[in-house]
Amino acid sequence: MPQIVTANDLISGDVVFRTADGAWARDVNAAGVLADKAGAEAAHAAALADVKAAVVVDVALIDVTAADGKVVPVKLRERIRAFGPTVKADYRADLKPYVA
Amino acid sequence: MYRYDEFDAAFVHERVAQFSDQVSRRVAGEMTEEEFRPHRLMNGLYLQLHAYMLRVAIPYGTLNGRQMRRLGRIARVYDKGFGHFTTRQNIQYNWPALKDIPAILAELAEVEMHAIQTSGNCIRNVTADHFSGAARDEVADPRPYAEILRQWSSIHPEFSFLPRKFKIAVSGAAHDRAAIRVHDIGLEVRRNEAGEIGFRVLVGGGQGRTPMLAREVNAFVPEKDLLAYVDAIMRVYNLYGRRDNKYKARIKILVHETGIDELKRQIEAEFAAIKGGVLTLPADEVARIEAYFAPPVLAEKPATSAAFEAARAADRDFDRFARVNLHPHKVPGYTSLTISLKPVGGIPGDASADQMDVVAELAERYGFDEVRVSHEQNLVLPHLALDDVHAVWSVLKENGLATANAGLVTDIIACPGLDYCALANARSIPVASRISERLGDPDRQEAIGPLSIKISGCINACGHHHVGHIGILGVDKKGVEMYQLTLGGSPDETAAIGEIVGPGFDSDQIVDAVETVVDTYMRLRASPDETFLAAYRRVGEAPFKEALYGA
Ligand code: HEM
Ligand code: SF4
Fold first, then answer.
1. Which tens digit of pLDDT belongs to each residue from B251-280?
2. Does B80 contact chain A (CB < 8 Å)?
3. Does the C-beta of B87 come closer than 6 Å to ligand 1?
4. CA B337/CA B350 separation, integer angstroms
5. Which of B398, B431, B466 is the last residue of a domain?
6. Which of A68, B39, B98, B126 is deepest in the core (most CB within 10 A)?
7. Are residues B310 and B273 in the same domain?
8. Residue B51 to residue B22: CA distance in whole angstroms
9. Structural domain of residue B274, as residue ranges?
10. Are B246 and B389 contained in the same domain?
């Protein structure tokens, strides 16, 4: 199963995803999708260097499905991290609605 | 009114300065996360699913208008415009940035507040009834005693390295609104035949993965011996409490494994040895602390208010609110009013910055500058003249705060669950919202009567599901959210741990299952006066089981 690297931005705490060129993005679709184990391990190791450099915290490799430019984490927990809380709240317009 | 004294002020300012420095070093990369984590946790800062989360203590749930307004300001400036009131009489901010934490802590310190979670294996912040100092059935305000315990325990070196964290709750009345039976030590203020104040002492309650109810170890400990007696309990716990296994380290396990009679003997022996010594509480010390919590001076009024009665007669909605959300006050002509943070379909415990401002304003204008946070995740205006209730309600109504459901089926407690919490197995809040929508019709709710639903997203039980009349526990079954239903729990003086009724339900079925339980109760209750809990205790789980799972 394809994987991506996720973490939280150190300063804002925001959920971020590692892009193919080693940057961190808030949009899960910008994540670099890692098709094989070797690629996943290399990206994970590079991400851990960013933990050392005080850029991000809580790095993890997560399973996703990727098709038509849409990256969707497999686990509900990770979908909630990627798309925001599923609670109904009108006054939080800046939280993207959850799509399964 | 709770005031923190010079000791606290100096301590808090020192802590803010210290933590601000740690944050700058962390942001600059001079400190690793491993080095930083213990410091941030000590200051109430967690890293959750989406962001950091800051937990701010509200000692005894007691706030004034200025403090409430400041909580609102922090929500507006540093968060996404809202805050979340919790079952621990705290407020949590779900989206603060690390770089803003020093500024937030400084703003809190300005209004004598802090985020210092007495975390770790020490005596945690002592909690008390949210109607303290106001309730008609109260023997005495429990908060001074909670504060005495807090001051004593927070400077006590011997109790900083207990086998596990330790929680104490104090109730001022026989009717227990502080859930003292699910705390490590529960204290109930009572009077003996001579009219002297003392405490009934219960030991060994707790929730989490091994829920247990506290047992009585002494029916009456005189006021002056409070610290000596609690000290005796702590000594026995320190000596015999298990340190080999985190899950067996709470005092509840000691009570369970040693037996209450033997433990009682040990405690009494320790107590006999230290009684009358340095821990004896001087009456002037009690008086000094009591002065911190002095109630407002309330002018004598007739027990009924013509204006209030006329308003009730004129407006059905107001009449319902008055029936459901008011609590009897000890002074005639006054009442305590619950501001429900449980709008039908909403998020239990959430308040927007604007709503916090409104509550602050109402407290200052009508409520003698006092607000309380209840462990039911609601707010309370503890002292309100009946004459003013209609004016207060009108403002609450304009601001989405007049839901008439205190203690009813939509007054649901829910932990943050999988929408926010890094430890969660399943979501809690959306389940609460859906149940509340299903059962939210005002007439239906009132017909159902007192019924508490409590939801936790994992076995840590932050949502108190073990003591919900209907408890819901979220579990993860091979990656799918499942919900276990328990029935018959209760947190009050008739405390009980709910019993699992049968196999769990998935997210689509859980609301139907709850409705089935409620409808079954409505069908079998002996009369409209027989509450859900009373009916359950009379008939047991069989009829509910049958309705849920078939014969
Ligand atoms: C979202 C972050 C939270 C985390 C990580 C968290 C974590 C925990 C953990 C690990 C425990 C179990 C400790 C033990 O049994 O030894 C616990 C207990 C508890 N939590 Fe939370 N919690 C969170 C939020 C909350 C909230 C929002 C509330 C209030 C609504 C709350 C109220 C409680 C209570 C009352 C207990 C005590 C249960 C007992 O008596 O053992 N927690 N929490
Ligand atoms: S009960 Fe579990 S899911 Fe809910 S807040 Fe506590 S730790 Fe998180």
1. 888 888 888 999 999 999 999 999 998 889
2. yes
3. yes
4. 18
5. B398
6. B126
7. no
8. 19
9. 135-292
10. no
